[in-house]
Amino acid sequence: MKTTNPIDAARIELLLSDLRLPAIKLMWPTFAEQSDKEGWPAARFLAALAEHEIADRGRRRIERHPCRSTTAHRQDTRQL
Questions:
Q1: Average pLDDT over residues 54-78
Q2: Is 20 helix (H, G, I), strand (E, B) or coil?
Q3: Nearest-CA neighbor of 70 among 54, 53, 61?
Q4: Euclidean distance between CA atoms 16 and 59, whole angstroms
């Protein structure tokens, strides 16, 4: 298993903060360790991180605007 260089890890943390990617910032060390152990291709590693970021953004959006999310859902079901 490879270990992440502390300087690289610090750079990644800063970049992810600047890009406002909180879920990836939180999850990348765990996924990096798992991908190193299991020999994931880079695309799989990035896809896993992106999927978690999208899911987290959706969850936070619903938490911020619970009325809007239920209203939008009702409108969608009426259109069916």
A1: 76
A2: coil
A3: 61
A4: 19
> Tokens 């600047």 label which residue?
18
Range of the domain at 56: 6-79
Residues near 72 by beta carbon (within 8 Å), at least 6 away in sequence:
none
Contacts 24+ apart (CB under 8 A), 32-41: 32/4, 33/1, 36/1, 36/2, 37/1
Contacts of residue 22, Cβ cutoff 8 Å, sequence gap at least 6: 16, 53, 56
Q: What is the mean pLDDT of residues 24-34?
A: 93
Tokens found for residue 54:
């999208």
pLDDT band at residue 74, thresholds of 50, 70 and 90? low
Tally the domains of the chain: 1
pTM of this prediction? 0.69
